[in-house]
Amino acid sequence: MGFLQLLSVASFPVIKVLLVTALGLFLALDNISILGDDARKIVNQLVFYVFNPSLVSTKLAKTITFESVVQMWFMPFNILSTFLLGSALGWILIKMTRPPKQMEGLILGCCSAGNLGNLPIIIIPAICQESGSPFGDSDVCYEYGMAYASLSMAIGAIFIWSYVYNIMRISASRIQKEDGTSNGSGILKASGDTSESHPHKFSETLTPTKDTMDDAYTLLLPDAESEEKVSVSSKIKNRLRVISSNLNLKVMFAPSTLGTIAGFVIGLISPFRNLLIGSSAPLHVVEESVSMLGEAAIPTLTLVMGANLLKENNYGEMHGAGLKGSSTPLWTVVGIVAVRYIFLPLLGVAVVKSAIHLSLVHSDSLYQFVLLLQYALPPAMNISTIAQLFGAGESECSVILLWTYAFASIAVTLWSTFFLWLVS
After folding, report:
1. Is 5 exposed, middle or buried (0-12, 13-18, 19+ CB in 10 A)?
2. What confidence score (pLDDT) does residue 195 get?
């Protein structure tokens, strides 16, 4: 296929996403208010609790077999690689740009966690259904592409709420500890001046303890020092204990993850598969009903993504979070855009091509494309939720998301074109 044909195949799905996203943004405007705050909350809950799990479970149940599980074993390692490489690049960016302390955890989160769920679920089916797609029959491509994207969503959610969640939690805890120390000394020197100088509010559950500050995740944050000298084995045991005790299992096993588990169980266990999957299955009406709910996920998800972007932008504007005159350093934003759209995709090409060369990845071009695409996505929307949860870097997060998603239309299109050429 020629470059222009590949560019059109890659650009049309992104254009579709942009058009529907723009509609969602338009519906969320104050003058229209169809997707206002209350409506957005309800639609978000529908997507989170009903549509996404239905979509994930049905697509996996139809396509998952023991052979496909063996073939897809590399995907969790690939997603872990995106997080680790992104964290390393984020750490370098922090060292180079010296951002404010409250932004360190946010920068690591934005550099490591990509939108591994929403965008692949939207983009991959659209590419499959484009005329001239290099992935063969559109129906087969759609079924397997949705299975790959659904698995990507579930694994990405687990890593975000276990890895990034704890990095940002510990970063916020360190800021709280420093603010608490400075507040204490301020009270001794000049009472009444400290109440306005540290306006951040934190949940009581975020109160830092010695164990929290000794967490292994603090190794990613600059200037982290241990208060005591202990044996290496004791420190490792302590860190593992702290990490396991602080993992938020409730958010890790989100509805989409449970839908993934259900899809694997139905797809891999023959009695369940024979009972639910296929037109001759006794309970096929159940599967078809769940599938009908799942079909609503993609358009609704795209509308909500546009509405949420407007929410982020408005939130940033309320706090004066434009690049000009904001607390967000310009070069930090530029650095995050460069990490997500230049350096991480280049490293991803090296990782995936090396895995293919070592026969760790099977020859399915669609599967290889999904693995490559996971390195070239904007930051996950859940980063905003985590920032709001810990009350650190909220306005800065709105600016970062606004600019990274603005550049996504160009970057994702160009990288998708290159990836299509690479695997075709």
Report:
1. middle
2. 35
Domains and CATH numbers, the chain: 3-180+202-423 (1.20.1530.20)
385: tokens are 């939720």
Q: Do 333 and 393 form a contact (C-beta atoms < 8 A)?
A: no
Please say if the pLDDT value at position 184 is more than 60: no
Residues 248-302: tens digit of each pLDDT: 556 566 777 788 888 888 888 888 888 888 888 888 898 899 989 988 887 887 7
Residue 109 to residue 87: CA distance in whole angstroms: 7
Residue with tokens 């239309």: 409
Q: Is the whole-model pTM more than 0.70?
A: yes
The count of other CB atoms within 10 Å of the CB of residue 295 is: 13
Which of 324, 339, 341 is closest to 94 using CA atoms? 339
Whole-angstrom distance, CA of residue 162 vs CA of residue 227: 25
Q: pLDDT at position 78, please?
A: 94
Question: Which whole-number Å values give the CA distances from 368 to 61, 133, 215, 362, in the listed order?
Answer: 21, 15, 35, 8
**Residue 101 token pair:** 């302390």
Lowest mean pLDDT among 230-244, 256-270, 384-398: 230-244
pLDDT digits (tens, 9 = 90+) for 82-118: 999 999 999 999 999 888 888 888 899 999 999 887 7
